[in-house]
Specification:
2 domains, 9-stranded mixed beta sheet, homodimer, alpha+beta, Alpha-Beta Plaits, Aminopeptidase, 12 helices, 411 residues
Chain lengths: 411, 411
């Protein structure tokens, strides 16, 4: 243990000062990736990290690194990160929390003039939300090798503008190769964006991994028919078949402890009050922390779809395998939480994060703090100052353990 | 019996000549109410009935009557009718069949110089489809007293144009009071628009009545939540509740011999693949030939809606009570069908027709002929020439029975 601690008040002020950039009337933040406001948010971050003696490094995808040198030149940095961009009607904490916790760690080290063995870096990944430039997590995705640089820079917004052009426009297209930068460990503090920690009444969630996700487009074709003149036994009703599918999909998740299933999109044609529906298109989102179990869920979906009348045609459009975070980092976060007097709660992340792509290139971990009512991607997103400080303190202590560990483990 | 018979070839030619007005590339007809094409269809009808010595009478709603005088001045006319307007992508026969059968009856009588005791009239009701000016059956509805003349003339299309202005524009705003015109009997030949007769392999359906209809708007409010981070047991999923409702609504009809239930409209928000649905709005259409049974169905809907989680809020927006057609006319149609060598099939109309509103002011009946695959409101709508002729022949003989009956029954 050491005598370094975060300043919860200072962190809280930084979070709220940052939230003024793109503040919405409803109390949220609209700082969408690669807009003028995103540039202002980045500028503010650069100003703050420069004040505490960090160098700033920007890669080809605009990923923005602040670096505080360590004592031993051959150690790879411990990297704390998340993202500064928000949803169009986002909150103050999704993404910003992780970057501001990183800033607070830098401030603590600077103030105490504490030199860690390994360098410390804080990163803000470009376009995590993907709200303007789908898909999400593009900056970390290119960094982690999931996407090519070309596809990342070529991502287009609804107006046809490319991400690469917007990076140049706001002055954050950097010279560094995206992905070439060494990472010793990666740790991402984040708000949970779900209701589990709040219900547990413990402030620190130790994220053991991220659920696997499978996405499907489903279409059901029946026969349009007159609602008045067509007897029930002569119908081929796409609406009825779709309703049964929605209920069966729900059961696929509820008969498992850790499964999740959602039908979020449901469109029917012709959408006429007195016409039996001719077709329904719907989306399916299946999630599970275990890859094999997720595959079972997928198979159950296919069987249910085939046995409907009329049958449903199912196309898988995306698969994101489950991630298990690095055991050492998970253990260090758990130790740091216990040492700070918190009972750590193991939790699997339901949402994707930049840490997913980082886990492909470095030992990676995450910690969560509670958010009010599990609400996120919403202007009403809210956390408590005490939880905010607790998450930062656990991050600081974990980073110190990793940066000063006696033996550097070869990766 | 008499020696008068319809000319099936001539009727077939008239149907197809009329269908050229507004003919679509796909073989259907687009002759929407009070368009220039509707005017041309009316003009054609006026030309044809004038050729066979009829006078033409137009009322304030544009309902268009062709009158052939009878031998006895004090008899009220036997009226044959339907409508010349079509759906925007309609077929050749919905509505037009009844009016062209009426024309064929007039042609037979004219050719044979046969004078019936009662006058014979053929009417085309304005805006039966309601496709441009909702609600449907406005012309007959004002005539039958279901709607005020003001509401009929004030009906607006999506551009804000009123029905009254369009009647003036196409020259079919008549001087006669709408509803003041005497009707001795009303008979409406129509295509079934459903699959029952085709399956029975008999060409003549004797319509004993029209189902009652109840329409509802249903809304379900859940809570938007992240599909990844929200455990199944912490969701209030409007989509799931709506799916259960759709299935239960289906059962309300299928556990009865003659019930029908349809959910044709289903809209959910926010319509995002990875968000649990916050709300669903859907429509319900319940039908039954028996008013009491239809009320039971309605009550079952309310109970199911209340017991859902989240519950559904149900608002009834329309009730059209079941209609039982006049026993004498039903008997005459049955006799005429048998005399022509057909086995008449009793059938309840699933769809609304002008005859519903006429039944409030005069003894009314309908007869159906089969249509291919039960298809209607569709450019592919199709009937056979033989069935077309059979329905016309039964109409002619029924009209002669009613027009020449020895005792005029007081209404």
């Amino acid at each position: 243990m050491n005598d370094l601690h975060v300043d919860g008040e200072r962190l809280w002020r930084a979070l709220h000062q940052l939230a003024e950039i793109g503040a919405t009337e409803a109390g949220g933040v609209a700082r969408v990736a690669l807009t003028d406001l995103d540039k202002l948010g980045r500028d503010q971050f650069v100003e703050w990290v420069t004040e505490v003696g960090c160098s700033v490094h920007i890669d080809q995808m605009g990923n923005l690194f602040a670096r505080r040198e360590g004592a031993e030149a051959d150690r790879k940095p411990v990297v704390i990160g998340s993202h500064l961009d928000t949803q169009p009607t986002g909150g103050k904490f999704d993404g910003s929390y992780g970057v501001m916790v990183g800033l607070e760690v830098l401030r603590v080290l600077h103030e105490a003039d504490h030199r860690t063995l390994a360098p410390i870096e804080v990163v803000s990944w470009t376009n995590e939300e993907g709200a303007r430039f789908p898909p999400a997590m593009l900056g970390s995705g290119v960094f982690g090798g999931a996407f090519s640089l070309e596809s990342g820079l070529g991502a287009v917004d609804p107006d046809g503008t490319t991400l690469g052009d917007e990076l140049l426009r706001i002055g954050y297209s950097g010279p560094q190769l995206c992905g070439g930068r060494p990472v010793g460990y990666y740790i991402e503090p984040h708000i949970e964006q779900g209701p589990i920690l709040e219900a547990s009444e413990h402030p620190i969630g130790v994220v053991t991994g991220v659920q696997g996700i499978r996405w499907y487009d489903v279409s059901i074709n029946g026969t349009e028919a007159h609602a008045g003149t067509t007897p029930m036994d002569r119908r081929t009703d796409a609406m009825l078949s779709a309703a049964e599918l929605v209920m069966e999909i729900n059961k696929i998740a509820t008969r498992r402890a850790d499964g999740r299933s959602t039908v979020g999109v449901f469109n029917s044609t012709p959408g006429s009050r007195n016409t039996v529906a001719g077709s329904v298109n719907l989306s399916v989102d299946l999630r599970h922390p275990d890859a094999e179990e997720l595959l079972h869920m997928s198979n159950e979906l296919l069987v249910v779809a085939e046995n409907l009348s009329p049958a449903a045609s199912v196309e898988e459009i995306w698969y994101s395998p489950p991630i298990t975070f690095d055991e050492r980092i998970v253990a260090r976060i758990r130790e740091s939480a216990s040492a700070a007097g918190h009972q750590p709660v193991d939790i699997v992340s339901g949402a994707g994060h930049d840490a997913v792509y980082l886990s492909a290139v470095a030992p990676t971990g995450m910690l969560f703090i509670p958010c009010k009512d599990g609400l996120s991607h919403n202007e009403a997103e809210s956390i408590s100052q005490a939880h905010s400080a607790a998450g930062a303190e656990v991050t600081l202590q974990t980073v110190l353990l990793l940066a000063d560990e006696n033996t550097v483990v070869a990766h």
